[in-house]
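User: Structure please.
Assistant: Input sequence and predicted structure:
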Amino acid sequence: MHDNADLLIDNLNALGVDFVFGVPGGAIEPFFNALARRSADGPTLVVARHETGAAFMAEGYARETGKMGVCCSTTGPGATNMITGVASAYAEETPLLVITAQTALRKFGRNALQESSCTALDILAMYRHCTRYNTLVSHPEQFATKLRAAIMAAHRSPPGPAHLSVPSDVFRAEAEAGGEPAVHRLSQRIRSTDAQAVDELAELIASARKPVLFLGKDCGEAIGEIVAFAERTGTPFVSGPGGKRWMDAAQPLYRGVFGFAGHRLAEQTIHDPNVDLILAVGAQITELGTGGWQAALLGERLVHIGASLEHFARTPMARLHVHGDPRLVFESLNARLMATSRPPTEPAVLAVDDPAACRSDAVPLKPQRLMTSLTRRLPEAFRVFVDAGNAWAWCTHYFLGTRSDGRYHIAMALGSMGWAIGAAVGSAVASRSATLCITGDGSYLMAGQEITVAIEQRVPLVLVVLNDGALGMVKHGQRLGRSEPIGFGLPAIDFSKIAEAMGVEGIVIRTPVELEAIDWARLGAKPGPTLVDVRIDSEESPPMAQRVKGLAESGTPGG
């Protein structure tokens, strides 16, 4: 018999999805049975240690492959555990198919174990505000139709998670005839451009004295055309923290990160009174990405370019909104614009706030020195995932890579601690390539058990733990904001020994000499994970004053 669980696998195969991330349980067992039966011709199951980790892994997989990520959980606590990871993907606009199980339909309303129907713990209501599509498959014959709708919703603009809540007996029911997958059409992206708006944009650019580009995280597919435009017209560009993944820090026209933990050169570029046009491309317009919605950026000089109409609601002050695929927009601009008659833009050196700390031989190790060393010595093959907390600030400001291939990942929309650990595992499972996760000791204590998935999958994952014995962003946020010092302390922990107890190579770094001795190429070539416990100077304050100022203005204490 070909049941609905088999039909789901058929659709995943048609999409090219080769991994499913989840945690087993009674109600989800029919789907796991199908994965086992179809192991020769279906996706491979990767079992996470926690359902939130499964969703983070699915997001990392989606970032790595460009395909839809898939995560699943059993009913009740399995589904509630997964919500944070799903909400993160929703905020980051990452396409996921989220499958949660339900008890059998005949048990609804009878207080069954882990029941999460509308008459018990209403999972559908919980997922409503963090998904693009959210439905209970209440009859077996609904399955194929609702699955197609979920796939379409996950890929529309803006993309995001689509949730199917499936009772166990619906999974076991025979699939209806005619439910064969047609997902090559359901998952296609519709690319269009507002030609009239592009015409207006070309006129604005032609008459501008000094334009600037502000690049967000969604400009990746267009980055080649954007840089060609910048070079042709002599237009300098800055990025938000998320847009940094597409930036070559050595590019002469790049002026650094604007916003959270950004660079003074980027601030000067945006605040330059001679700038009369700012082109924001693929930018969601978030608090951290805009330096707390700075008026210098979000004013009448702004033109907002992007594929999501939803994003334009955050820039009502813009002079012009250009709805369209950024790559098509800049292809059109490059085809019609002549070389600039403006004076050539002078190359600029991207400077950091504390260059002395970047060279310091002091012990404890300066985090600035760590990031500078990674910039110099990390092989280009590495994917890099940065976790929430102090790692955000140190990496955004001091890790200055020269690649523009999108392999640097950060998730600042929801800001989930532990995101980078799961996402790095999912990426490494997909790529089987060297992957670096930079996380904090607080995040590792939340989600560090997912390193055992990397053991099981034999992937070359290197976890760098910034070990300063504190929830660093809270600690320094309280200090900078002059709040009461409370709740940030962590016990002294040797994370390398925890790793070794799990069968993972553990390395402790205390000094610059030990840091420079690390063979990153060796670690990135291993068939298994490594944990590098870096004892950083806990008194070094990260470049997060702007975030503290924003909290103070909102009346919120602490970091």
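The longest helix spans residues 77-92.
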